[in-house]
Design brief:
- This protein is 51% helix and 0% strand.
- It is mostly helical.
- Helix 1 crosses helix 3 and helix 2 crosses helix 3.
- The longest helix is centred in the middle third of the chain and has 24 residues.
């Protein structure tokens, strides 16, 4: 996978996430994009069932990819995915 690169994803996450103490790392990028991909999956499945959308927003990134993880990674690279990390205790 060439686009978006991990550096682009990390830059997008650092601009959009609420991070008090540290910059996002690869683990954070994996967790955030995987969670967003599950939200996109739930959104499309709820459309097919005719049910309530459960508060999931449609993907704002226009892409030709049908892979939910690729869509989530593109959103993260553009800074359209917000996240909040819990402080270390």
């Amino acid at each position: 996978m060439n686009k978006p690169t991990i550096d682009e994803i990390l830059q997008g996450l650092s601009s959009s996430c609420d991070l008090e103490s540290e910059e996002p790392n690869r683990y954070t990028a994996v967790m955030v994009t995987a969670k967003r991909a599950r939200q996109i999956n739930s959104y499309y499945h709820s459309l097919g069932e005719g049910g309530v959308l459960d508060g999931f927003t449609p993907p704002p990134v226009s892409t030709f990819s049908k892979n939910y993880l690729s869509i989530a990674m593109a959103e993260a690279a553009k800074g359209e995915v917000a996240c909040r990390l819990r402080p270390n205790r």
